[in-house]
Amino acid sequence: MLPTIEGYAASVLSEIDTATTTVVSNDLAALDTASDINPQLRGAMTDTSVPGIIRAAVLADVLQGKVDAVSLQLATYAIRVSPAQDANTSLHDLAVFVETFRRDGLVAASSLGLTMARSRVAGFADARLARLTPVDMEQIEDDLFRWARTIESTDELRRLLTDRDITIAARQAVVQSLIGSRAHAQAVAIALYVVEGGRARDVVGTLDFLVGHNVDLQIKIDPSLLAGVVVHVGDMRLDATTR
Known about the structure:
Blueprint: H1 3-13, H2 18-37, H3 39-45, H4 52-63, H5 69-81, H6 87-104, H7 114-129, H8 134-153, H9 155-162, H10 168-179, H11 185-197, H12 203-211, E1 227-233, E2 236-242
Antiparallel strand pairs: 1-2
């Protein structure tokens, strides 16, 4: 399964109820079967001369009013981001993924290489950001950027979030406790998924990949401090000092 589609589907499925998940699973299973037995449909989705966005629009026209809105959202995204020659496989993999989620209540994120893990997180972020206003988008980008800088400049926090011997749930609890009430809800959701769907050693790199910013650290020694560090990123302040 393409990592981008996996992340996108994980995000969408986490926000719908059990009944809707069942409907979506049935819709996608039927679409998977239809794409196998209908050469015209399969040809429209796998035409290498047509951009993904157009192939997705064609599929949307075919499915409009025939499947659940979430099914339509997932299927058209899969077609849009898949290379044409892989479109049929992507639909099949998506159907299997959703059915596994319906049956088990989750699909554990497998270990991936750096590039693919970042793509998986980017797919999750695509789903979370799809319908937000520019103001929300700006706030989320700012929140994620600040969070990356906080991790980068705080040794103990960075150690906790990149330690693969600490469970994902425990690392996510750290994220939730520090930014859960201070950042945009979708920024928090993305930051939590970075821990789940990204590589443990690449938390900061994945966040920077999402927001596309580099930063120069400015370090000042305060002789009045006995130990610890104070981190300032914009108006965010994290104080872990002994005076």
